[in-house]
Each structure stands twice: as C-alpha cells, then as structure tokens.
Amino acid sequence: MATASPQHLLDDTINTGKPRQQEQQQQEEFLSSLETIALTIFLSIIIIMTVFGNLLVMVALCKDRHLRKKKTNYFIVSLAFADLLVALVVMPFAAIELTTGQWGYGEIFCLVRTSLDVLLTTASILHLCCIALDRYYAICCQPLVYRNKMTPVRVAVMLSGCWLIPTFISFLPIMQSWNAIGIEDIIEERRALTGGSNDTSCVFLVNQPYALICSAVAFYVPLALMVLAYQRIYVTAMTHVRQIETLQRAGSAPVTGTAPVITVRSSTSSDPSEHYHLRTTMGSSSSEQAPIANSRMRVETKAAKTLAVIMGCFCLCWAPFFITNVVDPFIHYSVPWQLWTAWLWLGYINSGLNPFLYAFLNRAFRRAFLVILCCDDERYARQGSCSYRQTHRACSAASVNGTSMALRLSFLPNRSYSDNGRTILANEQESQDSLGTL
C-alpha cells in the first residue's frame, strides 16, 4: 500500500490553502468596497444637507425684506455663508481623501485646503459667539441701550472680525509653516508611514504653541463668552417671566370703565403707520390666573431646552476635536488618525446643524422657507403673521413679518402701570424672539 510522502502532503496543504486565502481576500475586498460605498453615501448626505440648509437661509434673507430689518439676521446669514463654504470647499476634498485613502492635489493645495479649513470653521464658531453676544445685549440690556450698542457700524465691525481674525491663525501661519516649527522630523516620519511623498499625502500636524493659540482663539474663548452670555440670558428671561406674572396678578382685579390699550410697535421700524392698538377689557377673574404657574413653567422649560440644545450641539460637535488638538502635541502625536477624522467630521456636522438651530427655530425664517419651497405661494407668506390692518387680533408675543415686536402698555387715567412694566414686556418679547421660541 503506497503512502504519500511528506513533500506531497505539504504540497497538498499549500494547494488547498491558496483557494481559502484567495476567498478570504476577496471577501475582505468586498467588505471594504461596501464600507467605502456606505461611507461615501453618508458623507455625501452630510454635504448635501449642509449646502441645502445654509443656501436656503441665504435665499430667504435675500427674498424677504422683513428679515433684512433685524440685525441678528445678518449674523445668521453670514454664518450660513461660512457654513456653505465649508460644505463646498472643505468637505468634498476631505471626503475624497477619506474614501480613497490618498491625496492627489499636490503639497501647495494641501496647505491651501488646510488654511481654508481652519479659516472657515473658525469663522463659523466666531459667528455663533457674535449671535450669543447680540442676544445678550437684546435681552439683558434696556431697549435703548441695545439700539445704541448694536448700531449698523458695530454690526459691520463684528462681522468683519468674524472673517478677519481667523486669517491670523489660518493662512498666515500655515502658509509660512509656523505650525511645523520644531516638529519637521515627526511630519516626515508621518508621511513615510502613509507611504506617500509631499505631493501624494496631506499631513497636517501642529506644534504646541500653535495648538494652544489656535484652539484658544477658535474655540475656548468663544465658548467662554457663549456660556456667560447664555447664562445671563436665561437668568434675565426668567426674571422677566416672574415680573410679568406679578404684573398680571396686579392687573387681575376687576376695575370698571377701564380698558388697557396695547400699542404694538416693530422694534426695527420707526414708521408710524406700523403701529396699531389692541383693546382688551379689564376685569379678568381670578380663575383666569390659574394657568399662570403652568405657563411660567412651560416658558422656563422651553427656554432651558432651547439654550441646552444650542450649547449642547456646539460643545458636542467641537469640544472633542479641540480637546484632542490641545492634548495631542503633548503626548507625542499618538492619537490615531481614525479618531482625528471622526472628531473633524463631527465638527463639520455642526455646519449642517446651524441652519436648524439658528434659523429653522425662528418663525419668520420658517415662513420665508415655506414661501421659497412652495414657489412663492402667498398663502404661506401670510400664515402665522399678525396683520397690521387687523387691529382686533391680539398678538401679545408676536412677530410681524419676521421683525421682533416691542409691547407698550398705555392705560386710561383710572389705571396705570409703571415704565418698568413697559420695559419688562419689551424685553420679554426680545427674550422670546432671540431664544428662538417664537
């Protein structure tokens, strides 16, 4: 009986092992292709949604003249422009590099792309900070103080700063390679590990001074200002709610022969034709004051949720990246590139969320969006707005064609309220409009 030699057994094992290895390799290639396709679809959806949302905000401001009357909306549309550029200029190249695993546009364009990345994302964050400061002045200051502080010139200066300040931490140091001083060897080693030259790999590392300065200017300082501003906004808004509740209780006693006249005036217009009076009768019973506590709780809860969503999304999207950006140079650049990529795209997603947080929550913008998406159907232009001619419709917390309303109470001689009451109501309306609760 013939027996197989050890050499034949070894050859058979090798021959049977080759198909298995080929099958396993094909399976891995197939899974890799599926992952690449899924990643491409996911990144494309992010880019398309970011472009659509921010473009819609810009078109709405251009088509609706009432939106252009409010100063805060200029910050919102400039923010939308910065986020739109992030989606058009930065995200596509980052997506191509991530899905293909290589950079094919040369070293110079790598520096330009990186500079644009830092410039536009920092500009977006600074716009968020300016919006917070604008809301702080609108809610926490007296109406006249807000108008004196937020003049068109000051708004233009703030917008210019949002675009000029990022250039000092983007194009200027990156094109001069100041971020690479002292870590040239580490950058070359990283390029060698990726298996490419300067023209086929886009490696961007920063030294410790650049990491600290850039992170402070682009994130930590704006974050501190936003936290302080929104904390004061919440406290002031809740104070207004309590003071209005006190005024309502003080005015709940029935007084015959009196009728308060509510003059509603657009805070962005001085045209007397845009004023109208709303008359209501005094004498509300104590039973009508029962829902006050529940209404106050709803206002507080809604304001808290709005601020929590705004700050929560901002911190969730950008805090991981900037924490890693500061820590990585001090731990010898040991953070995996996969983590860097995940944090970076999480920050990009913030550019897609901003239109929903700062524009879609605003009733005036939503109405303008409906007009645009429904081919200028005038039914949507009138929906939800308070007509200037219909003086019998009470709009105690209203917005007329996208402009915030200041409520002023003037009573007949038998009944009077203090100027403080008028200020409280005016500021309360600013609070509601600026918090996005309308």
Automatic annotation (TrEMBL):
InterPro entries: 5HT4_rcpt, GPCR_Rhodpsn, GPCR_Rhodpsn_7TM. Residues 53-358 form the G-protein coupled receptors family 1 profile domain. The keyword Membrane applies. It is a multi-pass membrane protein. The chain crosses the membrane at residues 37-62, 74-96, 116-134, 155-175, 210-230, 306-323, 343-361. It holds the Pfam family 7tm_1. One of its GO terms (cellular component) is endosome membrane. Its main location: membrane. CDD domains: 7tmA_5-HT4. Keywords: Cell membrane, G-protein coupled receptor, Membrane, Receptor, Transducer, Transmembrane, Transmembrane helix. GO terms for biological process: adenylate cyclase-activating adrenergic receptor signaling pathway; chemical synaptic transmission; positive regulation of MAPK cascade; regulation of appetite. GO terms for molecular function: G protein-coupled serotonin receptor activity. It is found in: Cell membrane; Endosome membrane. Belongs to the G-protein coupled receptor 1 family. G-protein coupled receptor for 5-hydroxytryptamine (serotonin), a biogenic hormone that functions as a neurotransmitter, a hormone and a mitogen. Ligand binding causes a conformation change that triggers signaling via guanine nucleotide-binding proteins (G proteins) and modulates the activity of downstream effectors. HTR4 is coupled to G(s) G alpha proteins and mediates activation of adenylate cyclase activity. Interacts (via C-terminus 330-346 AA) with GRK5; this interaction is promoted by 5-HT (serotonin). This is 5-hydroxytryptamine receptor 4. It comes from Seriola lalandi dorsalis.
